[in-house]
Amino acid sequence: MDRYLSGTQLARLLAIDPAARPYYRVLARTVRSLVLDGRLPVRVRMPAERHLAEALGVSRTTVTSAYDLLREQGYLESRQGAGSWTALPDAGSLGADNPWIAAVDDGLLPLHAAAPSAISSLPDAIAAAAGQYPRYTLGMGYDPVGIAPLRQAIAARYTARGVATRPEQILVTTGAQQAIHLVTAMLLSPGDPMLLESPTYPHVIGLARMRGARIVPVGVPDEGWRDLDLLTCAMRQSAARLAYVIPDFQNPTGHLMDDTARAALAAAARRYGTTLVVDESWGELAIDKGPEVTPLAAFDTDGRVITIGSASKLWWGGLRIGWIRTTAATVRHLAMLRASVDIASPLFEQLVVAGLFEDIEEARTERARLLGASRDVLAAELAARMPDWSFTLPAGGGSIWVRLSGPTATALADAAACQGVRLAPGQWFGVDGTLEGRLRLPFTHPPQVLVEAVRRIAEARIRGAYGTRPAEPLTPAL
Fold it and tell me: How confident is the model at residue 261 (pLDDT cuts 50, 70, 90)?
């Protein structure tokens, strides 16, 4: 027999302040928190909207709105004539109100996003690209593998970093996300095991589920990948066809894999027949001085390491240009595969990025200075205002991975939104509703924005998960 709750029973569990506003959002948030901490089990039938409204003393419209919101977020499933049940959302899917896809200008400080502002050399690169653009109009206007100057620049950068690379080994894509999509479409069939770090880049979780993969999560140790036993054992036991890893300032933990671990990972992939998809989107964003690491592809001996890069982290989030480094034969295969998507990446943006590669070391220096200042301010503000939170200061990348002392990250994110800050709770980066005790805080924003954001987060904690004061308006300076 199905388990169910009456309106009176659920009302006792909720204990919502009658003055909370907007009430329907507080109601939905409270139900969600009960589900996440296990006090309201999954697959329990919820009371009818009319019955819950009577028990709470609110209008039926209010309860209907709350139920609608819970359905959008994946915490409620309904069937016409049969009622509604509690549920857990697909951890890789992004609900309608999730800030990763809700690209709306709602006035909230966007600490859910880790995209940096533009580098100072970008305007000059745009002007130079505009000067070159007319001569390209004499030709077809697109190249499925990418324009020659950009492929040459990317190949030269890999060679300079210790991995001999020819332009024929480079495929230019419309961002790193398209690159990941193309590789998984080529190599992954429904039911195939795919190894993912946990936490990891949220969109890859969604992509793996969309491809019908059997996800094999491997927890990233707090100290990083110093011991690869967890990773290699999972690779062997699952017979994973594909493994997606972020060895360079891992998103969101910030860990940097050393050369010894990289060599061991490549050897394990070779031993167990796994293809490594290596995301180097953050690879050029070292902040602290330290030994240079070698690209993981340098340890590849049989073409099973496929590397993905991006222009968006070093130069500007709005430059939707990425690339794939692999064998020349695989590049040709991927170029044919992408024809069903977009044929080629925008020419003008490719010209801009090709120009930016000419001064890449200056860009790295500038980005390290800016990110370092913001990172240190964020760490200091967290230590001062939330001393009970813990984190490891990353040597590069774009975010701090925080361990909370309470409340859960989702509840905190809801409370912080009431104070004018969007946050990225740990659940976004995990599989099956895990990592609720974590929070990713990016330091890709200016220091003054981070100071204000942390102040508002601290205010949200003081007011609790159900604070109702409206967010303060943002000033133009922010």
Answer: very high
Q: How would you classify the pairing of strands 322-325 and 305-310?
A: antiparallel
Torsion of CA 50, 54, 56, 62, to 10 degrees: 40
- DSSP characters for 359-416? GHHHHHHHHHHHHHHHHHHHHHHHHHH-TT-B----SBSSEEEEEPSSS-HHHHHHHH
Name the pTM for this structure.
0.76
Sign of CA dihedral 363, 364, 365, 370: positive
**Secondary structure tally for the chain: helices H, strands E:** 15, 14
Q: How many CB atoms lie within 10 A of CB 269?
A: 26
Would you say the C-alpha torsion 225, 229, 230, 232 has a positive or negative sign?
positive
3-state class percentages of the chain: helix first, strand second, coil last, to nearest 5: 45, 15, 45
DSSP string computed for 432-456 = TT--TTEEEEE--S-HHHHHHHHHH
| Helix, coil or strand: residue 278 | strand
Q: Is 90 exposed, middle or buried (0-12, 13-18, 19+ CB in 10 A)?
A: middle
The predicted structure's pLDDT at residue 221: 87
What pLDDT score does 469 carry?
40
In the numeric block, which tokens belong to residue 293? 């690491």
Describe the crossing of helices 23-36 and 7-14 by its angle, rounded to 10 degrees. Answer: 90
* Digit-coded pLDDT (tens) for 271-281: 999 999 999 99
Side-chain-side CA neighbours of residue 241 (13 Å)? 15
Which residue reads 């077809």 in tokens? 140
Helix (H, G, I), strand (E, B) or coil at 302: coil
CB 428 within 8 A of CB 101: no
pLDDT at 37: 62
pLDDT at 148 over 90: yes
Tell me the Cα Rg of the chain. Answer: 24
Domains and their CATH numbers in the chain: 7-86 (1.10.10.10), 109-117+366-463 (3.90.1150.10), 122-361 (3.40.640.10)
Q: Closest Cα to residue 122, out of 446, 447, 348, 371? A: 348
